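[#protein-structures] MJ: dropping GGDEF domain-containing phosphodiesterase here for a structure pass
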Amino acid sequence: MADFQISLEILAFSLLCTFIALGLLLRERWVSRRIKAKLVTVSEEKDALSLYDANTGLLSRNGIETALRHWIERADGEGSAFCALFLNIDEFHSQNQAFGQAFGDRLLQLTGQRLESWLPDGSDLGCVNDGEFVVLLSGNSSVGLDAARQLLQKLAVPLAHEHGSTVLTCSMGVAVYPEHGARSRLLVNASIAARQVSRQGGGDFCLYDPQMSADLREQTLLVADLRQAIDKGQLELYFQPKVDAKTLHITAAEALLRWHHPERGHVSPAIFIPLAERNGLISAIGNWVIDEACRVAGHWRELGLRMRVAVNISGYQMRQEDLVERIESALSRHHLQPGRFTCEITESVAMEDTKGTQQTFERMRAMGLHVSIDDFGTGYSSLATLRRLPASELKVDRAFVSDLADSEDARSIAASIIGLAKALNFKVVAEGVETEQQSQLLMRMGCDELQGFLFSRPIPAAEMERLALAAPSETSGPGFSDSLFNATVVAELVELPKR
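AK: finished. structure tokens for GGDEF domain-containing phosphodiesterase:
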């Protein structure tokens, strides 16, 4: 009987443990289901939040992609078309850097509000990146272009903010579905069209053209090759002589960059220089040009050719703090005096009233470099600024030289520029001289040096040597003579001793 009692107690205890375990298991499953449900809710809330931009409240990139999927499903079902407008605020990042992130955020909010107030019913608007908006609306290319035109006018009204007011300009690209690509390419193609507008100065719009993608791929490949061009020895300097307007003897030479691509042949500087500037390659290329020009000039000096060599200095280089130090190092390395090196700086860059540019000019002055203001007459120079610049030379832009024979206005402008230069004690070089008549007119106006196809096209360094060493004659062309600038203070500097 006692054993039976013990067995019942054991059985009861086992049943109790089983019920407890079962209860715990059921509770764990219930908790697990609660957690899973909560995770689903949080995930759904997170997904919903990701559809909207936190700053503007507009659709985010994920939101636009989701909306785009619905637009395409509807267009495919109905056999209709719709437009994607990609809008990029010009110079947004510059404004953001100038006034701070808070200002940039506020500018995006105000822009988004203005775009939203214009938005047609049934359309979608998103802020997909800093300074970038996307509009999806029904219609063909004509509707898209008309919408872009209206948006430009809408955004042209100044935006008031705590720093004053800002007039926005935008670059807009229009792409149409299905004509301009499937879902994966439509927004990309609209952005390519906007980039095309931006590269041409912004403040406008255009319709996507498949050639734009081909051009972009071509440029991408070209940039990749350009990155290796220096190491592979594909870059070369050509030189165009400057001649004394009276004797027609060579007095100086301007270095001009050339790129010999192994497959494409000669690539124009008008193509690869802007690519270098946009892709961060101009610094390395500029350094190479300075050093190579000094190397060639050093070799010419050993041959007895003491002519000045000129190098074009870009606005980007002028804003680099170590530009003058790099020039000084190259001159020292190749045993050249600063007065034999000309920095040709365009008028527009020379007139920049920025701290970095002005400091570079002051360093050039202190070092004794010869400075020439290039393309003179095409900008808006201040006489006060010109007087302060450490320049010794003005170059009359070829636009005025080309019309000298046929235009009284061109002759008047050229004579005025030369007269201004003389009043400021500058020497004057005229570029783009192609005819004997132009040469004679410029000489009578008092021009000091001439440069152009009449005397020589840009030629390799070896050919320049031959030309400079030749005696002047009708067959051999202009010969070498000492620089016109021997009378200047800079040219009186003593040659650096050979090491």
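MJ: nice. The first helix runs from residue 2 to 50.
AK: one more thing. Confidence is low (pLDDT under 50) at residues 39-49, 471-477, 479-499.
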